[in-house]
Amino acid sequence: MRIGIVVDNELNNDKRVLREADILKEHGYEIFILCFGFDNNIYCNIAGINITRIKIRKRTKDILFFILNSISIYEWFWSLRIKKFIINNHLEVLHVHDLYMSRAAHSGRKKAGKKIPVILDLHENYPFAVTTYNWTKGFLRSLISRPKEWKRKEKEYLGYSDKVVVLSEEFKEDLINRYPELKEKEFLVLPNVPDLRQLEQSNTNLVKIPFKKTAPIIFYFGVIAERRGVFNALRVFSELIKENNRAVFLLIGPVDKKDKKSFFTIIHSETLANHVRYIPWIDLSELPAYLEISDICIAPFEKNPQHESGVANKIFDYMSGKKPIVASDCRPQQKLIEKYNCGIVYRNDTEMKNAIIKLLSNKQLNMEMGLNGYKAVMEEFNTDKVKEQLLKFYSEIEAVASKDRSKDSI
Fold first, then answer.
1. Is domain 197-379 given the CATH code 3.40.190.10 in the classification?
2. Among candidates 60, 57, 6, 64, which has minimal Cα distance to 33?
3. Per-residue pLDDT tens digits for 151-181
4. What is the reported pTM?
């Protein structure tokens, strides 16, 4: 079966898309991917996958996306590209990523004159998430980008697909509760789990850590932003230092543009200056080395519809590194952490501080929770386990398509 995957980014750093494509390719499906190629950048080829890149300036793409709800050039642009993508590659299935791409996929399929199924892969609760992004905030930006429109458009855009892929059972249930007619669609729950082969290939001895460990390390990995709860964590950490708790706060990840001034002011404050280590980014292959030197990992997400749409990649990364997790009470991560006893869930800043103190002072509990998380990843939450669900999902699609072709030939 010839499967077309559409994603509006550069692909090479999109772990979810690459993981799904790799599983389908290894099973024997022919995989074709349509994505962007920004600013004449040079990209590595991916063995066994046919990639078509749309050459475009990153700034142009950002502008077209920004005005999507005011002037839908972005959707028109993608629908024409998808039409050509379907025809040129004789596609039998179209798998598109993110809610805002579904109408363009539907339109492209219609223009191509092909009755192929469209699968919509939701990476997040987009109608809520877009309202938290800095590029939609402010009177003029909000007036043009109209982020609140997505709440109204969600039902319509879900309707353009034949099947839906989501990150968690909780997100699936939320969608069906809001739109009961979605029960007729077939859902696939596919969490962002790690690939055990990559874990086996990592060599922490080859990574040079740019600082010397002098105290227990509390680690946060990912985008640094107020909406991610990082500033709450910094306030709690500041209290810990003032109370003479020995610890270093290690943060690795890009800082949201709007939050940069506040972030650097906080970490360079008199209280935190000697207790925070910040690294703008690392290659993902280096992550196991930083997990190895860490003592506690945190996931301080604000409790909201976006962060309750699934378990973030970093949670599974922390678990694979054998580290206990201190996390906010967003439903999917709370359910996971409590079920496998691999960390402590908190509801407010006081509980976060107490959880960190508890793990810093109890090395046995720290180690036990870390090993519990690692065991859960090895036995349940990895690509080898969830790939069967994806392959079953596609085998059913293939069976229906084969049946339809047989009818057409009669």
1. no
2. 6
3. 999 999 999 999 999 998 889 999 999 999 8
4. 0.86
